[in-house]
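F.,

This is the one I mentioned.
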């Protein structure tokens, strides 16, 4: 009975998120290289070859987008492939959060019009955020990111929330990531 109730609640969350399709705002940063959707106009900053967009769905669920030009001298001196640079990105994300990898997948570009040489990964990380003093349990947060790199520009799309909101997070993640286009 609990499983049936949980499945019902999760389906309502998915229906609610899908119903928001027409109200989500399409953002196309200067240059028109890519676009994405968020529930409303995000906070945005564009300076020093870095564009940053942030939107909080509520106090728990946050979406962020970063676009930055990678120093061409660095990328010319980097001896690995674009794909191996994304592996380093994932390792750094895990290290910076003291987290553990929950998912790591290639992004398929089949049927999409994307810039030549672009690669992408979807990365999930769970990391500790605090200790519940009442239960002495560690509280966790999940972060999911889609990161793309074409040899010059790195695009990072993040969405995160506490583990208590995982079903909401997954619904928003699926919609947020599905609307990234080039």
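My design for it:
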């Amino acid at each position: 009975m609990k499983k049936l109730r949980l499945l019902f609640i999760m389906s309502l969350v998915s229906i609610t998120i899908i119903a928001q399709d027409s109200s989500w705002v399409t953002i196309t940063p200067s240059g028109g290289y890519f676009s994405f959707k968020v529930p409303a106009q995000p906070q945005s900053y564009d300076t020093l070859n870095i564009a940053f967009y942030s939107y909080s769905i509520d106090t728990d669920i946050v979406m962020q987008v970063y676009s930055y030009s990678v120093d061409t001298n660095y990328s010319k001196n980097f001896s690995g492939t674009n794909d191996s640079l994304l592996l380093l990105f994932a390792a750094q994300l895990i290290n910076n959060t003291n987290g553990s990898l929950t998912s790591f997948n290639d992004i398929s570009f089949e049927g999409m019009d994307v810039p030549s040489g672009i690669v992408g990964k979807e990365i999930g990380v769970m990391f500790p955020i605090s200790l519940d003093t009442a239960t002495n349990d560690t509280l966790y947060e999940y972060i999911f990111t889609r990161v793309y790199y074409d040899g010059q520009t790195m695009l990072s799309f993040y969405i995160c929330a506490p583990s208590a909101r995982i079903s909401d997070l997954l619904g928003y993640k699926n919609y947020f990531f599905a609307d990234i286009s080039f």
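Strands lie at 25-27, 36-38, 43-47, 50-56, 62-69, 100-106, 119-132, 137-149, 153-162.

Talk soon.
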